[in-house]
Amino acid sequence: MTRRALLHTAARPRVALAVVALALTACAPSGGVPVSPAPTSSRAERDDVSTGLQAVEERYDVTVGVSLLNTGTGETISYRGAERFGFASTVKVFLAAEFLRRTPEDARDDLVRWTAADIERAGYSPVTTARLDTGLTAAESAEAAVRESDNTATNLVFDQIGGPAELDAALSRLGDDVTDIVDVEPGLNTVGPDSTGNTTTADAFTTSLAALRGAGSSTDSDAATLAEWMSGNATGDALVRAGAPSGWTVADKSGGAGAVRNDIAVVTPPGRPPLVLTVLTRKNDASAPYEDAAVSESAAVVLNTVR
Questions:
Q1: How is 195-255 classified by DSSP, letter by letter?
Q2: Helix pair angle (151-161, 164-173), 10° resolution
Q3: Nearest to 17 by CA among 230, 260, 296
Q4: How far apart are CA 89 and CA 145, in angstroms?
Q5: How many Cβ atoms from other residues are within 10 Å of residue 204's Cβ?
Q6: Which tens digit of pLDDT belongs to each residue from 84-118?
Q7: How far apart are CA 142 and CA 136, in angstroms?
Q8: What gap in Å lies between CA 307 and CA 140, rounded to an integer?
Q9: C-alpha angle 128-208-288 in degrees, rounded to nearest 5
Q10: Are 303 and 277 in contact (CB under 8 A)?
């Protein structure tokens, strides 16, 4: 059974995948991207974005953090970009990237197994539940973590790279000393009071995604693999993809738990360089469920500014 059949993902246009792979291989120079890319957006653009995002915050009673990098011009747009949010499952894109970076091609076909108890502990696990009796290859587990946000698959990949501390170190190598990875699933969705554990900022995630090609972080082949997995993300249709202008290609990784709903994406307008976009949201009432529309409408505000 092919990986695509395993995860029941419709085929995506090859051109779109090529564009997204180019984004991941061309976002950064060989030494990575600067923490604060320049130039920033104009004052008028910043005012338009602030007004639009404040309206989203009021409409959905949420706090929004947004960071966008135009990989062609270096222009950035940031709204609450340095404010911390729980990252939830968006971190899985970096987990998969680190798996690809450190795992040789032949080892990616190694069979990994798990138990029903592992699934019960992890929670949401559609792929690993279906494949409990047969197992997955190491690469299939990483793909399931990104495409389907499978929690047990995520924990299998954490095991393969050495745990949360190793992923935290990988992000530090990209220049990200902000993101604080403490737990595996399901704990990575929990943010304690006065703790930075399991949090990031929109600026940090955008910079880290743009930097993945720098500092020897991935080969062109691995970047293409990650881009394909992100392009097949089954959980992101109502998020950045829903807020993007018609005809723009979106490859993303979503995340959500309780009051938190997030999306991290590479957005490619036709005939133009890719944009790297992070949208992080949390309801102001921590007991309220998240709303997808807060993410999609925030994305629309920012992307319509640069269309």
A1: --TTEEEHHHHHHHHHHTTSTT---HHHHHHHHHHHHT-TT-TTTHHHHSPTT-EEEEEEE
A2: 70
A3: 230
A4: 9
A5: 25
A6: 999 999 999 999 999 999 999 999 999 999 999 99
A7: 10
A8: 36
A9: 60
A10: yes
Residues of 221-252 as b/e, b for ≥16 C-beta within 10 angstroms? Answer: ebbbbbbbbbbbbebbebbbbbbbeeebbbbb
The answer to whether residues 157 and 151 touch, using CB atoms and an 8 Å cutoff, is: no
Q: What are the tens digits of pLDDT across the range 51-76?
A: 999 999 999 999 999 999 999 999 99
CATH for 3-101+163-306 is 3.40.710.10
Residues 6+ apart with CB under 8 A from 43: none
CA 91 to CA 181: how far, in whole Å? 9
Yes or no: say if 152 and 126 are a contact pair by the CB < 8 Å rule: no
Structure tokens at 130: 């279906």
Residue pair 198/188 in contact (Cβ under 8 Å)? The answer is: yes
Q: Structural domain boundaries of the chain?
A: 3-101+163-306
User: Which residues are annotated as catalytic?
Assistant: 89
